[in-house]
Write a structure and sequence with these properties.
Length: 122
């Protein structure tokens, strides 16, 4: 990937200079400008981010469970500094705790270990 005339390796969808993430205000401002230009309906960057997390978690209920790896990937892709931030979305999916326990015979806290991150987007 090329950015600002130099090669970078990044895990960010829209990396900023210095191979870091864009601040929340940059995302909101640019999202609003582009969304309003091409859409008549209302949406916010946060709503799309929320939808991304929830849809991924919902999809896992229909697939084989590699829940810990999937949640870790989701967490990193969203730029969360801890899994606690991502667990918030898990708590919003109705019935997910029951499905998770039924399929794995254990609870969420015992499945996913806490992992340190280098990035932070909160």
């Amino acid at each position: 990937m090329k950015l600002y005339g130099s090669s970078i390796l990044t895990g960010y969808i829209f990396p900023a200079k210095g191979n870091t993430f864009h601040k929340r205000q940059w995302v909101q401002t640019n999202f609003r400008e582009l969304w309003d230009k091409y859409n008549k309906s209302h949406a916010t960057a946060y709503e799309l981010r929320h939808h991304y997390a929830i849809e991924n978690i919902n999809r896992w209920t229909d697939e084989g469970f590699g829940f810990d790896a999937k949640l870790l990937y989701l967490s990193k892709s969203m730029g969360h500094s801890t899994l606690e931030s991502t667990k918030y979305y898990y708590s919003l999916v109705p019935g997910m705790a029951d499905i998770l326990e039924e399929k794995t015979k254990t609870d969420f806290e015992n499945i996913v270990p806490e992992v340190d991150y280098e990035e932070s987007n909160e």
